[in-house]
Amino acid sequence: MPSPTRALDNGLARTPPMGWNSWNKFACDGLNEKVVRETADTMVSNGMKDAGYQYVNLDDCWQSSRDADGNIVVDAVHFPSGIKALADYVHSKGLKFGLYSDAGTLTCAKRPGSIGHEYQDALQYAKWGVDYLKEDWCSTLPGQSAESSYTLMRDALADAAKKTGHPILFSLCEWGSNKPWLWAGPVGNMWRSTGDIQDCWNCKKDWGGNGVVQIIDQLDPIYSYAGPGHWNDPDMLEVGNGGMTTEENRSHFSLWALLAAPLLAGNDIANMSADTKQILLNKEVIAVDQDPLGIQGHRVRKSGDLEVWSKQLADGGRAVILLNRGAATASISADWADIGYPPTVMATVRDLWAKKDMGKFAANYTAQVPSHGVVMIRVNP
For the whole model, what pTM was predicted? Predict the structure, then answer.
C-alpha cells in the first residue's frame, strides 16, 4: 500500500465523497439553477442527505466566457441568480456545492477552461463557497503535462483556502490517460482512472467510453493506490438512467461501494423510481463504501463469468461480492481462504440486499446469483 504521507493533506475526503453530479442525466442543455435547487431539496427530503450524500455538483456548461479582467463569467440564461446564490442555497440545506472546470483552453463542451487562470479561478470559487472542484482534461496543449497542470491547480486551491478559510475538494479527471494513480496521491483527493462511463452493462466504445464491466476490470489491478483522502474514481453512477436493468443497477452500485469509489448519483433524483431509490439508499451497502479503513476491494477469484470480490473492513470483517457476468443464474462460492480467513473459522454472514442474517458458516459461503447480478455479503468471524 502507498504510504499515507502520499495523500493530499487538505483534511477532505477521508472517506469516498458522496453526492450528485449533473452530467449523466442533464448534460449541457438540461442544466439550470432550477434543476440544482430541486435536486438539493430532494436530497434532503428523500433521505439521501441522511444516508451520507453531501455534494451537489454542477458539471460542464455553468460558465459562458471571461470578462475583460479574465474573470470567469456565469451563464446568465441558465443561472440568473449567479453561482454564489446557488451555493448559498445548497449550503442552507446542510449540503455542499461543487463546480467543474478544465485544465485546457476550453472545457469538453467548449466553455472557457482554466489554463492560465488557475489562481484567479480558485480564489473566485472559494469566494463563491465552492466545496468541490472537478477539473477535466479537454483542449489541452501539445505536450501539456497532466501532473504539472493538476499540481498547479492544487496549489491554487491551497492558496485560495489560506486566503478565504474555505478548502475545496479536488477531483482530477484526465480519464486515466496518464496513470494518475502513480502520481496523483499528493495532488488530488480523487482521480478518474478510466474513460467515461456509459449507461450500460457491457458496451465499450471505440472513443473510450466504458460499460460497468469494463470499468471494474480497469479498477481491479490498481486497488492498492486508493485510501483516505485519495481515491480511484471509476466515474459517476448511472443508476436510474434507464440503460440498465434493476439487477444491473444493483450490481453497479454494489461494485462501486466495494471499490471504495466516490458515490456520485447521476440520475434525476427529484423524479426517480422506487427501485432506484431503494438502490441508492441502501445504508448497509453505503457503509461498505464509507468504511473508515479506506481499503479498495478487488477480485480474489475468477472462473469464467463467475467472480468473487472482497474488501477488508475496519472491524476485521470482509465485504464480499459474488458476481455473475454470465447469461444465466449460477451458483458461486466465496472461500474463506480467498478473503483472508482460515477455512476452519466460523463466520457470520449477512446479505446486504436481503438485509438478512444468513447464519454462521465455515470454509465458504455459496449462493445462487442471477445473470448480471450480485449477492453482496458481509462476513465477520
Answer: 0.97
Question: Would you say residue 132 has pLDDT above 70?
Answer: yes
Q: Which of 59, 60, 136, 289 is catalytic?
A: 136
- With a cut of 90, say whether residue 44 has pLDDT above it: yes
How far is it, in rounded angstroms, from Cα 230 to Cα 292? 13
Tell me whether residue 102 is one of the annotated catalytic residues. no
Q: How confident is the model at residue 8 (pLDDT cuts 50, 70, 90)?
A: confident
Each residue's pLDDT tens digit, 116-131: 999 999 999 999 999 9
How many CB atoms are closer than 10 A to CB 245? 14
Residue 216: φ, ψ to 5°: -65, -30
> Strand 306-312 to strand 318-324: parallel, antiparallel, or no bridges (unpaired)?
antiparallel
Radius of gyration of the chain measured on its C-alpha atoms: 21
CA separation for the pair 366, 234 (Å, rounded): 28
Give Cβ neighbours of residue 288 (< 8 Å, ≥ 6 apart): 257, 258, 311, 313, 319, 352, 376, 378
Indicate whether 77 pLDDT > 50. yes
Following DSSP, what letter does each residue of 126-151 receive, concatenated? HHHT--EEEEE--SPPTT--HHHHHH
196 among known catalytic residues: yes
> Does the pLDDT value for residue 93 go beyond 90?
yes
Residue from 59, 102, 121, 196 carrying the catalytic annotation: 196
Which residue in 132, 166, 161 sits closest to 57, CA to CA? 132
CB 25 within 8 A of CB 266: yes
Q: What is the pLDDT of residue 9?
A: 81
Can you tell me the distance from the alpha carbon of 265 to that of 164, in angstroms, rounded to the nearest whole number? 29
- Show the CA angle centred on residue 351, arms to residues 347 and 356, nearest 5°: 95
Q: Distance of CA 201 to CAs 26, 116, 205, 243, Å?
A: 21, 39, 12, 8
Question: 6: pLDDT confidence band, cut at 50, 70 and 90?
Answer: low
352: left (phi over 0), alpha (psi -120 to 50) or beta: alpha
Distance CA 60, CA 50 (A): 27
